[in-house]
Design a protein that fits this description.
Keywords: Membrane, Transmembrane, Transmembrane helix. By secondary structure, this protein is mostly helical. It has helices at 3-12, 48-77, 83-96, 98-108, 115-133, 139-157, 160-165.
Length: 180
Protein backbone atom coordinates (compact mmCIF):
# COMPACT_ATOMS: atom_id res chain seq x y z
CA UNK A 1 0.00 0.00 0.00
CA UNK A 2 1.41 3.39 -0.94
CA UNK A 3 2.12 5.72 2.02
CA UNK A 4 -0.52 8.23 0.90
CA UNK A 5 -3.11 5.47 0.60
CA UNK A 6 -2.23 4.24 4.11
CA UNK A 7 -2.72 7.74 5.52
CA UNK A 8 -6.06 8.07 3.78
CA UNK A 9 -7.17 4.64 4.99
CA UNK A 10 -6.32 5.59 8.57
CA UNK A 11 -8.13 8.91 8.26
CA UNK A 12 -11.33 7.14 7.25
CA UNK A 13 -11.39 5.03 10.43
CA UNK A 14 -13.53 6.45 13.24
CA UNK A 15 -11.43 7.91 16.03
CA UNK A 16 -8.26 7.99 13.96
CA UNK A 17 -5.85 10.74 14.92
CA UNK A 18 -7.66 11.59 18.16
CA UNK A 19 -6.20 10.80 21.57
CA UNK A 20 -8.05 8.17 23.58
CA UNK A 21 -9.44 10.19 26.42
CA UNK A 22 -12.09 8.52 28.49
CA UNK A 23 -11.67 5.12 26.82
CA UNK A 24 -9.89 2.28 28.61
CA UNK A 25 -7.89 1.34 25.50
CA UNK A 26 -6.97 3.11 22.30
CA UNK A 27 -7.89 1.65 18.95
CA UNK A 28 -4.76 0.25 17.37
CA UNK A 29 -2.73 0.25 20.58
CA UNK A 30 -3.17 -2.99 22.54
CA UNK A 31 -1.50 -1.61 25.66
CA UNK A 32 -3.86 1.35 25.80
CA UNK A 33 -1.19 4.00 25.27
CA UNK A 34 -1.89 7.16 23.34
CA UNK A 35 0.09 8.59 20.48
CA UNK A 36 0.67 11.82 22.44
CA UNK A 37 4.11 12.44 23.85
CA UNK A 38 4.48 12.90 27.56
CA UNK A 39 4.69 16.63 28.15
CA UNK A 40 7.57 18.07 30.14
CA UNK A 41 6.64 19.48 33.52
CA UNK A 42 6.20 23.23 33.18
CA UNK A 43 4.70 23.94 36.58
CA UNK A 44 6.38 27.15 37.55
CA UNK A 45 9.90 28.46 37.13
CA UNK A 46 12.94 26.21 36.95
CA UNK A 47 14.44 25.60 40.41
CA UNK A 48 17.86 27.15 41.00
CA UNK A 49 19.24 23.77 41.98
CA UNK A 50 18.39 22.44 38.53
CA UNK A 51 20.00 25.44 36.86
CA UNK A 52 23.16 25.04 38.94
CA UNK A 53 23.32 21.31 38.19
CA UNK A 54 23.03 22.09 34.47
CA UNK A 55 25.72 24.76 34.77
CA UNK A 56 28.12 22.34 36.48
CA UNK A 57 27.49 19.66 33.85
CA UNK A 58 28.07 22.22 31.09
CA UNK A 59 31.27 23.36 32.81
CA UNK A 60 32.56 19.78 32.89
CA UNK A 61 31.68 19.33 29.24
CA UNK A 62 33.43 22.56 28.28
CA UNK A 63 36.57 21.53 30.19
CA UNK A 64 36.53 18.16 28.42
CA UNK A 65 36.22 19.87 25.03
CA UNK A 66 39.13 22.17 25.90
CA UNK A 67 41.22 19.20 27.04
CA UNK A 68 40.42 17.27 23.87
CA UNK A 69 41.33 20.22 21.65
CA UNK A 70 44.55 20.67 23.63
CA UNK A 71 45.41 16.98 23.07
CA UNK A 72 44.67 17.36 19.35
CA UNK A 73 46.84 20.46 19.01
CA UNK A 74 49.71 18.81 20.85
CA UNK A 75 49.25 15.69 18.73
CA UNK A 76 49.56 17.65 15.50
CA UNK A 77 52.10 20.32 16.44
CA UNK A 78 54.08 18.72 19.24
CA UNK A 79 56.42 15.78 19.23
CA UNK A 80 54.33 12.92 20.64
CA UNK A 81 55.64 9.36 20.83
CA UNK A 82 52.68 8.20 18.74
CA UNK A 83 50.87 10.90 16.76
CA UNK A 84 47.93 8.60 15.93
CA UNK A 85 47.39 7.78 19.59
CA UNK A 86 47.49 11.47 20.57
CA UNK A 87 44.97 12.42 17.89
CA UNK A 88 42.70 9.49 18.75
CA UNK A 89 42.83 10.44 22.43
CA UNK A 90 41.90 14.04 21.64
CA UNK A 91 38.98 13.04 19.43
CA UNK A 92 37.78 10.54 22.06
CA UNK A 93 37.80 13.17 24.81
CA UNK A 94 35.89 15.62 22.60
CA UNK A 95 33.26 12.97 21.81
CA UNK A 96 32.99 12.06 25.52
CA UNK A 97 32.36 15.74 26.25
CA UNK A 98 29.03 15.40 24.45
CA UNK A 99 27.55 13.41 27.36
CA UNK A 100 27.68 16.20 29.98
CA UNK A 101 26.89 18.88 27.38
CA UNK A 102 23.75 17.07 26.22
CA UNK A 103 22.80 16.35 29.83
CA UNK A 104 23.18 20.04 30.69
CA UNK A 105 20.97 21.03 27.78
CA UNK A 106 18.36 18.47 28.82
CA UNK A 107 18.43 19.69 32.42
CA UNK A 108 17.88 23.28 31.31
CA UNK A 109 14.96 22.13 29.16
CA UNK A 110 13.60 20.07 32.09
CA UNK A 111 13.81 16.70 30.32
CA UNK A 112 13.60 13.76 32.72
CA UNK A 113 16.04 11.64 30.68
CA UNK A 114 18.84 14.15 31.29
CA UNK A 115 19.38 13.32 34.94
CA UNK A 116 20.78 9.85 34.14
CA UNK A 117 23.67 11.03 31.93
CA UNK A 118 24.39 13.88 34.34
CA UNK A 119 24.62 11.50 37.32
CA UNK A 120 26.78 9.06 35.33
CA UNK A 121 29.15 11.90 34.44
CA UNK A 122 29.52 12.85 38.10
CA UNK A 123 30.08 9.25 39.17
CA UNK A 124 32.80 8.88 36.53
CA UNK A 125 34.42 12.13 37.68
CA UNK A 126 34.90 10.91 41.26
CA UNK A 127 37.57 8.22 40.56
CA UNK A 128 39.34 10.65 38.22
CA UNK A 129 39.40 13.23 41.01
CA UNK A 130 40.78 10.59 43.38
CA UNK A 131 43.61 9.76 40.99
CA UNK A 132 44.40 13.45 40.53
CA UNK A 133 44.54 13.87 44.31
CA UNK A 134 47.12 11.09 44.56
CA UNK A 135 49.35 12.69 41.90
CA UNK A 136 51.94 15.41 42.37
CA UNK A 137 52.04 19.10 41.59
CA UNK A 138 49.27 20.87 39.69
CA UNK A 139 47.08 17.77 39.59
CA UNK A 140 46.22 18.02 43.29
CA UNK A 141 44.28 21.32 43.06
CA UNK A 142 42.63 20.06 39.87
CA UNK A 143 41.55 16.92 41.76
CA UNK A 144 40.13 19.00 44.59
CA UNK A 145 38.15 21.18 42.19
CA UNK A 146 36.86 18.16 40.25
CA UNK A 147 35.82 16.36 43.45
CA UNK A 148 33.98 19.43 44.76
CA UNK A 149 32.20 19.97 41.43
CA UNK A 150 31.22 16.28 41.12
CA UNK A 151 29.90 15.96 44.69
CA UNK A 152 28.05 19.27 44.45
CA UNK A 153 26.45 18.29 41.15
CA UNK A 154 25.42 14.89 42.56
CA UNK A 155 23.79 16.53 45.57
CA UNK A 156 21.94 18.96 43.29
CA UNK A 157 20.81 16.18 40.92
CA UNK A 158 19.34 13.91 43.59
CA UNK A 159 17.65 16.76 45.42
CA UNK A 160 13.85 16.30 45.69
CA UNK A 161 13.20 19.72 44.13
CA UNK A 162 15.24 18.75 41.07
CA UNK A 163 13.52 15.38 40.84
CA UNK A 164 10.11 17.00 41.01
CA UNK A 165 11.04 19.69 38.46
CA UNK A 166 12.12 16.98 36.02
CA UNK A 167 8.87 15.07 36.57
CA UNK A 168 10.62 11.94 37.85
CA UNK A 169 8.47 9.70 40.01
CA UNK A 170 10.03 7.47 42.60
CA UNK A 171 9.42 3.73 42.60
CA UNK A 172 5.95 2.78 43.83
CA UNK A 173 4.63 6.34 43.71
CA UNK A 174 1.32 6.85 41.94
CA UNK A 175 1.18 8.91 38.80
CA UNK A 176 0.06 12.50 39.17
CA UNK A 177 -3.65 12.93 38.46
CA UNK A 178 -3.12 15.61 35.77
CA UNK A 179 -0.61 13.55 33.75
CA UNK A 180 -1.34 10.67 31.46
Amino acid sequence: MWPRAAVLARAEKPGAGRPCRGRPRCAGYPAGVSSEQTPTPDAGPRPRRLTWAAALAALEGAVLVAGGVWMLVLGFTGNPDDRQQAVTGGVTVIVLALLPLLAARGLLMRRSWSRGPAVITQLLALPIAYNLLRADGVAIPAGIVLAVVAVTALVLLVNPATTQALGIRGPGRPQEPGRK
